[in-house]
Amino acid sequence: MTVIATRGLTHLYSKGTPFQVAAIKDINIEIEHGELVGIIGHTGSGKSTLIQQLNGILKPEKGTVLLEGQDIWASKASIRQARFKVGLCFQYPEYQLFEETVYKDIAFGPRNMKLDEEEINRRVHKATEFVGLKEEHLSKSPFDLSGGEKRRAAIAGVMAMEPMVLIMDEPTAGLDPHGRDLILNLIKEYREDTGNTVMLVSHSMEDVAQLASTVLVLENAQVAMSGTVEEVYSRGEELSKMGLSVPQVTRIFAGLRERGLDVDTNIFTLEQGRQELLRFLGKGVPV
Amino acid sequence: MIKDITIGQFFPGTSFLHRLDARMKIVLTFAIIVIIFLCKSFFSLGLMVVFTVALILVSRVPLKTILKSLKPIIFIVVFTALLNIFYTTGDANSWTYEFWIFKITEKGVFTALFMAVRIICLVIISSLLTYTTTPTGLTDALERLLSPLKVFKIEAHTIAMMMTLALRFIPTLIEEIDRIMNAQKARGANWESGSLVNRAKALIPVLIPLFVSSFRRAYELAFAMECRCYTGGKGRTRMKQMKFGVRDFAALVLTGTLLAGIISLNIFFPKVI
């Protein structure tokens, strides 16, 4: 079932001035329910514009965004619904925290949805647990949390709306490796637990390879490639022409192949690499 | 809307006005603003309009850009003009037009026109200053012009530095506001409908993160400045030395001539409307 689709989606910046540029043009995508879509592309390729279109923060110049088959711009009510159904978590979300307590901040979204107090309470606690914050954090001021905790509290604020589609823009930007793993795991668990669609915008080909089921590559305001991780990542040469590089582990296996070793080159994560090496070395796969 | 603000907007160029010393430009701008208010007759105001148009032509700033700076004051101009039309009582030997409770006099119409032209000249002249002077040039000049205030223990350098930083951070803050507003919109914040009180309340989720990040930026900037050994104005030299040239004295003489012209037109053709 298709959750979100776009038809000929185009967005212009500085319209009507000499500086007019199309941030995205004629984008047609279809996102299936329950998928984890990785969106990659380098700075200025239109990633941020695209995701802001999907929940109606930006209004398209041309084309439509269909949420469960309905045009999100059909009416005022439908655009508000789209904001709740498609949860968008911006880059550095910790800068949007504002309430006196973490509890109130996470409850901001659900409260805007006009849910009753009981339901809000349930959702806040569930989201808190999801992101790995503790009960005692809830009564603290969000400004007293550490950097990583702030980020997780902000993500909880979006998750508490229980959106059908969760979009995260560079959720690991500026975090140390430990914090990064924490957030990536959390996204994975969220998807496995709720079965909801997740879209992950990232610079890191490694992160996307680890998590995504399908990949969307943006280049010059258009979709340059789309498909499964294997399909996209096997076109390493085209990717590097766009200024994107395949994961390091993939390059290692390509290098091994070049030196005459008979290994599979469709290796995108460390785990796959380990399995392939073990197979190659003839030791079989340990249980 | 927020992007229409033209304060500190510089239009690059190499015209006579661009190359004038910024100190002279500031002083002369103030002088011309005073001169605008000295215009008492249609002839002197006419000379002022000619002078303003001449300055625009000399500056080579496109007319479109100039008109953009007038956009925010359209309301004030119209409002003043309307007030003057309806509130000026005419003298006996001119026509009047009456309907319902309103009474329009010939004098009223002329006064309204006069005021409108005055305000427009005023805004064009002052925006020409910012269009033809870089923000750094402006603050440097202000620092020099205010330096005699040292007698009163006022640090001109500090004021100028604060102005430079404030101007520098306007676009950054606008971007920041945009980002925070979008983030809260994504969580269902709504300040486009509802009562005035509710709309004001809905701004809290924007204002608090904005304050927090402004303080953060201020700290970061202070650290960065200290790391580059900034200790205030004492002993600081500048890369661009300001010097008065022939050009600046020519501008001074020209403005003096304008003043003389306006005063003599006031005296010899005192057709007050």
In short:
By secondary structure, chain A is an alpha/beta fold. Chain A is built from eleven helices and eleven strands. Chain A has helices at 47-54, 76-85, 102-112, 117-130, 147-159, 177-194, 205-211, 229-233, 236-241, 248-258, 270-280; strands spanning 2-13, 21-27, 30-32, 36-40, 62-67, 70-71, 86-89, 165-169, 197-201, 214-219, 222-228.
Question: What does this protein look like?
Answer:
- With 287 residues, chain A is α/β, with parallel strands linked by helices.
- In chain A, helix 4 crosses helix 5.
- The radius of gyration of chain A is 20 Å and the shape is globular.
- In chain A, 41% of the residues are buried.
- The model of chain A has no long low-confidence stretch (mean pLDDT 89).
- Chain B is mostly helical.
- Chain B folds into two domains: 181 residues, no CATH class; 62 residues, no CATH class.
- Chain B is built from eleven helices and two strands.
- In chain B, strands 1-2 form a two-stranded antiparallel sheet.
- In chain B, helix 4 crosses helix 6, helix 7 runs antiparallel to helix 8 and helix 8 crosses helix 10.
- The longest helix of chain B has 31 residues.
- Chains A and B meet through helix 2, strand 7 and helix 3 of A and helix 8 and helix 10 of B.
Structural Rg of chain A: 20 Å
Stretches of chain B where pLDDT is under 50 for at least 5 consecutive residues are: none
The structure class of chain A reads alpha/beta
Q: For the terminal residues of chain B, how far apart are their CA atoms?
A: 38 Å
Q: Which whole number gives the mean pLDDT of chain A?
A: 89
Question: What count of helical segments of chain A does DSSP give?
Answer: 11
Q: What's the shape of chain B? A: flat
- Number of strand segments of chain A: 11
Helical residue percent band of chain B: 55-70%
